[in-house]
Amino acid sequence: MPSKAEVLKQAEEYIPATVRMISGCRDEQTSADVSNVASFSLPDPAGQAGGACTSALLQILYADHKAPDEDLSFQDVLLKMRGVLSNKNFEQIPQLSSSRPLDIHAPFTIVPAENAGGTRRAVVIAINYGGQQGELRGCHNDAKNMIEYIKDIHGFKSENITILMDDGEHTPPTRDNILAAYRTIVEESQPGDCVFTHYSGHGGKLRDDDGDEKDGFDETLVPVDYATKGQIRDDDIFSILVGPMARGVVMTCLMDCCHSGTVLDLPFEFVADGEQQEMHVKPGFDPQTLINLFGTFQAMSQGNCSPLSIMEQVGQLGKLGCQIL
């Protein structure tokens, strides 16, 4: 097992930005589609359904349209999320992953003081898959509630929030559009800026095609046009969003989907299981993973990437696709 110092050295080289991710569940777990967000006491629910992770987080951070009266640490927020989910009979265990060993006892924020003067940008993706097998009901509500939260509490401006939603009003969350939105926010972000990304939709797993996954599977996001364009592998997300984000940017990602524990391939983690008291190196993490991912990033930048064929991805989705409770 490599030391924290060894992993940190590799992370600082291959992941220049400070990247944190809150995920709804570990890789082996599934997320959940909540039938009535009002049961989570959300502020003015935008509709009748929402994701369990997003709903739990907003109950803690944005109840009654305001920030909590007490300062909450990262650990407090994750443990409270776990408590909310447990009380609703969900078995999901939220986790916090990071490119740096974050102090989980520090106050929770997505805009650290040292980045408060920079531009705040966001990409919010919500996919209900209307008319398709596996249609969800909560993802649009997730997006609307989260956008209100980041604008009201964290000062994000509408003109700096990119929304992809399959509602007929916003940019459709196709594979190409999702990757384009990630590329654009990377291109626009400068040192000192803050970035927030939110994904609410299906997550899945595909057989690893380059040997960088110890369990033999890549974690994926499932765009609305996955049946013809394929899924978005964690390698793609790293190469397009995580790896090239500028040093000095702080990016916080909320992934409310199945199999999301390592979808950004970040080396440090805190699991809200009631046992961890600090963030540590992810069990089984190999620093070589970052080197391999960086190689993929370089290959994609040079146009030399050879992903699985679309039909192979679609076939594997049918065998290994996301489960929604």
Can you put this structure into words, describing what you see?
By secondary structure, this protein is of the alpha/beta class. It is 32% helix and 18% strand. The protein is built from 9 helices and 13 strands. α7 packs across α8.
Note the main attributes of this structure.
325 residues; alpha/beta; eight-stranded mixed β-sheet; three-stranded antiparallel β-sheet; 9 helices; disordered C terminus
Structural class: alpha/beta
Identify the overall geometry. globular
Helix content: 25-40%
The strand line-up of the biggest sheet is 6-5-7-11-1-4-12-13
Strand content: 15-25%
Q: What does this entry show, briefly?
A:
Helices cover about 30% and strands about 20% of the residues. By secondary structure, the chain is an alpha/beta fold.
List the helices and strands and how they pair.
Elements: H1 4-14, E1 18-23, E2 33-34, E3 50-51, H2 52-61, H3 74-87, E4 95-98, E5 120-126, H4 139-154, E6 161-165, H5 175-188, E7 194-200, E8 203-207, E9 217-221, H6 226-229, E10 232-233, H7 234-242, E11 250-256, E12 268-271, E13 280-281, H8 288-301, H9 310-320
